[in-house]
Write a structure and sequence with these properties.
Elements lengths: L1 H9 L1 H29 L2 H9 L2 H5 L3 H15 L15 H28 L1 H7 L4 H23 L1 H12 L20 H32 L5 H7 L1
Helix pairs in contact: 2-6, 2-8, 2-10, 8-9, 8-10
Amino acid sequence: MSNNIKQDDKNKPYIFLCQILTALSLTLFVITLSVNLSTLNKGIYAFSIKNLKIEDTSGMKKSEMVQNYNSLVDNLYSNSYDFNLPTLPSSTNGEIHFIEVKKIYDVIQIIFYISGSLSLLGLILIKRGYFRFLKWSVIASTATPILLGVLASINLDKSFTIFHKIFFNNDYWHLDPTTDPVIDILPQEFFYFSGASILLLILTGSIILLYTYKRKITTFKPLNSKIETANV
């Protein structure tokens, strides 16, 4: 047993770095997974159509709006950078904007797959009795939606503008409904609903991580007390 303790002391810096990497990866995985689940949940748009009365404000039928919205979402996850909507025209600036949105989603997918793969390190750490990365990830994935939610609630319109200025280096996101009627079926409030959905999903992920952490530290039987006190 003394040899095991000495080996753990020797590997402590390495294990600490692995826990930091895993905590960061797990947090990014929860965030990007939440973004994907919210985007692919087309029920949010159906809810928005009904509660925001988009049929009345846009003058379009629900079936046409859903058709174009579904095409928009499918485009985000496709391999093509050609932007075309089934029944709605788009200006050059509008096309550029939605292509830029797709590029952001491409980055999200890269982060999603890399962070998901690196998060598998957690299985090895858990097996060896190291759980601290779960606690760190719970803190990060809880603080993120709370902080963003508080900042957004102070001024939703300003937060919406700041978001676009951070992610886009132009003003093409200011779509003109006469040349880009898609904006008529995507009111600003819809993005608030989507954002709230993402934040709630991140919190849900945090709760799942917290449950896993609590369960592991109560059921794990360490080989020695030094391992237990150092890593939970």
